[in-house]
Design goal:
Blueprint lengths: L8 E5 L8 H10 L5 E2 L4 H7 L3 E6 L3 H8 L10 E7 L5 H5 L3 E7 L4 H12 L7 H17 L10 H11 L4 H8 L3 H15 L4 H11 L3
Parallel strand pairs: 1-2, 1-3, 3-4, 4-5
Helix pairs in contact: 1-5, 6-7, 7-9, 7-10, 8-9
Length: about 220
């Protein structure tokens, strides 16, 4: 793939730019694209001078890097992010912490897949596993739907999400799985919903939702 089609640059956000980073080096070899190293202190300058940087982050080192970022969130709209070496399924909140997430690769993904994904991302595409894309779609769809709830009832985004699940007849276990929370948390939210709506059970809550909320 010709290099001259690339209009944006991937930067590897790391602790030590001089250390060996096998995955990054192999991606560079596979794609023929240079991936400059960047430390946390460089991000402020990047915000001021570069508007199209893509940050690539090793999830294994993310906790340490995040502590160095202080008040500079990755969620800044100037950055797109790629996360690799992910060892487990991330919660929706964890996914959102990466801001404009364009790509996610698990530790089991081979270099060919990561390299192909990076090529697509640098050309404006997304490279997200299906379940990750579903999580984000579910979240953003419900953020939009929040604005359709009655203004007279102070429901949180999560409570509205649960009400919509009730409208489709979902059980507590199904709601927990769909929302990536525990069944206990679902029950806790339901009790708050019942109190806010002045209803006694999930059937009455579902009936309220069908009357007041858009499907």
């Amino acid at each position: 793939m010709a290099k001259n089609i690339y209009s944006r640059t991937i930067y590897f956000l790391c602790e030590d730019p001089n250390a060996a980073h096998p995955v990054i080096e192999q991606v560079e070899q596979q794609t023929g694209i240079a991936i400059p190293r960047m430390v946390a202190d460089d991000l402020l300058l990047a915000l001021q001078q570069h508007k199209h940087r893509i940050l690539m982050i090793d999830h294994y080192d993310y906790a340490k890097i995040k502590s160095q970022l202080r008040d500079l969130p990755l969620a800044n709209k100037s950055f797109e992010t790629i996360v690799f070496n992910v060892s487990h399924r991330l919660t929706t909140d964890e996914l959102l912490s990466f801001g404009h997430l364009k790509g996610l690769f698990y530790h089991k993904d081979n270099i060919e897949v990561i390299a192909k994904g990076c090529e697509e991302i640098i050309n404006g595409e997304n490279w997200l596993p299906r379940k990750v894309a579903s999580q984000l779609l579910f979240h953003y769809r419900n953020v939009v739907d929040t604005h359709t709830s009655p203004a007279t009832v102070d429901l949180t985004t999560r409570e509205i999400q649960i009400l919509r699940c009730l409208m489709t007849g979902s059980s507590n276990i199904q709601i927990a799985e769909d929302m990536f929370i525990s069944e206990f948390t679902v029950k806790s939210h339901l009790q708050k919903i019942f109190k806010k709506l002045s209803v006694k059970n999930r059937v009455q809550a579902a009936a309220w939702a069908k009357q007041h909320m858009r499907p």
